[in-house]
Amino acid sequence: MSSWRIFCTGVGGQGTLLATYLIGEAALKAGLPVMVSEIHGMAQRGGVVESAVVMGDRKSPIISDGEADILLAFEPSEAMRALRKCNSETLVISNIVPLIPFTVSSGKESYPEVDKLLDSIRNQVRRFIGFNALELARKAGSELSQNMVILGVLFKHGGLPIDAEIMRDMIRTKTKKAFLDVNLRAFELGYSL
Amino acid sequence: MNHLLERETGKKLLLLGNEAIIRGGLEAGVRFATAYPGTPSTEIADGFYHISLQEPLYFEYSVNEKVALETAAGAAISGVRTLCCMKHVGLNVAADALMTLAYVGVKGGMVIVTADDPSLHSSQNEQDNRYYARLSGLPMLEPADPQMAKEMTIAGIELSEINQIPVLLRTTTRVNHSRCAVTLGDLPEIKAPEGNFEKDPFNLVVVPMVGRQLHLRLLEKKKKLQEESEKSPFNFTEGTGKWGIVTSGVSYNYVLDAVEDLGIKDKVTIFYIGMSHPFPTQIATDFLNKVESVLVVEELEPYLEETLKVTAFEASIEKEIAGKGDNLIPRHFEIDPGIVKKAISNFFNLESPPAETLSVSEVPSRPPNLCPGCPHRATYYIIKKIVNPETIYPTDIGCYTLGVLPPLSMADFLICMGSSVSSAGGFSKAQKKPIVAFIGDSTFFHSGITGLINAVTNDHNFVLVILDNGTTAMTGHQPHPGVEFGPQGKIEPKVKIEDVVKGCGVKSVAVINPLQIKKSTETIQKLLDSDSRGVKVIIAKSPCPLYERRVMGKKQKIVFEITDECDLCKDCLELACPAIFYEKAREGEERIFINETLCSGCSVCAQVCTAIKAKKKN
């Protein structure tokens, strides 16, 4: 069956749910069957936020371990944590800028070396695309637009059956007017990677 | 315009399950809705709230689930179509009302949404509320996705009105919080409730002689509902194969994917039980007669499995029926497509290659934490500094439960909403260690007040801290009776917490602003030192910073920084503020710094350490 299972992971406040929602809306616009699943509530107080978009001939709104076609990671250690969802054929798209969890900033645990972490992911999957989403978001005008940068990369390299123009349209119509220009710039910066 | 008020029939919208339930309610003519917020049901309440601001439909955030259901009952018995929603454990709170409302019934259609939370994403347990249908005798509908959730809400209102009985709509997190394309139906004009109550005490006042008659009537209704279940479009079979699979709710989707992946579509018959109570015995018997063996794919308890086994026994059908088991479906947590694929392979003896796994190296844990600037952190810090280290901290349900995590470690006992106050009383009578209990403002109104009256009456001896951040923060800032700030600024609260506490008979009450460390410490110390025994209450009052920013539009002017005077004493780390970072370089060099983007400017750290200074926010 032809389907695209995208597992998204990030940290509360990074805009993962908005990105997930926009992919879902774009799929609907493109006429694809789509299911999106999110977790709200307790998870958002600085914790891990995981969501999924499943497009095509599948019914389940969630993705089992080892079954993600694409992993969209907003933070490198979260990419590693979510690697359980991937297999050797998975495409991993990841921001490489760490967000230090509270357990590390308070000196209780340590954050692994980012390069080693990313190498370990790169060596196990079909394709790994890592980039500095923070720098590109700043360039676009706001750190908060990292999610749009990541969407740009997804639409360039993800092999999705949705035209990037549809996603631009979603950004134009479904995100806050005040951030529209920044969001579109951020998407293009990601798209040009 | 609110997208749920879209009038174009046939249009497809990407709706969350909870939004689909609202839309279903609107399409079915619901004019009255009540709720107490709780994940994963909250968006239903919030959606109705926003619609009620622009349409004449009545909605209220009730004080708790029991009150929500009783309020809704008043409307439904007056002939108004009504919806009442809550999380699974909320139905425990409302259970007293539920059990006898089932006897009395309704006149206007009424749907009660119970949102279960397998895997405890945001809950204290993962109880299976399907048993409430059997316990109360009420019909139950269980959707597999948002589209079905909308259809079932409409069908539930109709079924309820025809049979004059409330209908339970049971969802799980993956239905509430999934989105799919939902096709809109006709939206009738949304009108204000115009009910009419007709006096009928010998059917509506449940004294024993009435209750006896009503129980008989409930059993009669159940017979009729049984017939409804046998012909319900939500109970259906797919395929004609000899391998039987029974399922319901979100698990249905996992079954469909597994059957497709395993290429066994022509071998199976799938039986979806969407109206799970009353159980469609006749369809189930026909199904059992056609298949060779049956695998039941359901989350949590073996509810359908056991019902099916009884059905088989009564029809003298001897076939293997299995569900829960080591190599099949676990009885705990959510299931997923992979688990279902494995269970189907094991049960029907299929070859299924094990899922490939990659090597995941260890990464630091990232538990949720109190936000920067959260006043609860300051309250915890102050109290921890001045009380006996042996103190027991009964706590309650809300953001502040996160205080359980080190280094704050300010939670010792919690079972449910309101348990902080009552259990503190029990601790005070049963053992000698001192007790400081914590409860949030909304939770206090929800179920803390009765416990407080009980404590005063029975001379319990403890300190109760009411963490008043002016909103129901955890579920996304819903109002409560004591709210003093809104988007318009300061407002006169409908019910002042301080007045309630005094009205409950508490003599020692102090109000503090926890962001003022020194002053608050002195006030609390004075209260603790006072000779009087009994219940002492501290109201720690300071608004939720997220609420201040998002709802009240407060702008932040300053941030804090750690200056060169820092001697690495690490006292500030005890605050557990996510904006304060400790770093130890590989060469052993240590430093502490504040992330300016995260800092909320609350100034608590600067009151703890003189090396921390304010500066203008960029």
Itemize the secondary structure elements and their pairings.
The complex is a heterodimer of chains A (193) and B (618).
Chain A: E1 3-11, H1 16-29, E2 34-37, E3 48-56, E4 70-73, H2 76-81, E5 91-95, H3 102-105, H4 114-122, E6 127-131, H5 133-140, H6 146-157, H7 164-174, H8 180-191
Parallel strand pairs in A: 1-4, 4-5, 5-6
Antiparallel strand pairs in A: 1-3, 2-3
Helix pairs in contact in A: 1-7, 5-6, 5-8, 6-8
Chain B: E1 12-16, H1 17-27, E2 32-35, H2 42-54, E3 58-61, H3 65-77, E4 82-87, H4 88-104, E5 110-116, H5 130-136, E6 140-141, H6 146-163, E7 167-172, H7 173-176, E8 178-183, H8 201-204, H9 208-230, E9 235-238, E10 243-247, H10 251-262, E11 268-273, E12 275-277, H11 281-290, E13 293-297, H12 303-314, E14 320-322, H13 337-347, H14 375-386, H15 419-430, E15 436-440, H16 441-457, E16 462-468, E17 485-486, E18 489-490, H17 497-503, E19 508-512, H18 517-529, E20 535-541, H19 545-550, E21 558-562, E22 580-584, E23 590-594, H20 604-608, E24 612-616
Parallel strand pairs in B: 2-3, 2-4, 4-5, 5-7, 6-7, 10-11, 10-13, 13-14, 15-16, 16-20, 19-20
Antiparallel strand pairs in B: 1-8, 6-12, 9-11, 17-18, 21-24, 22-23
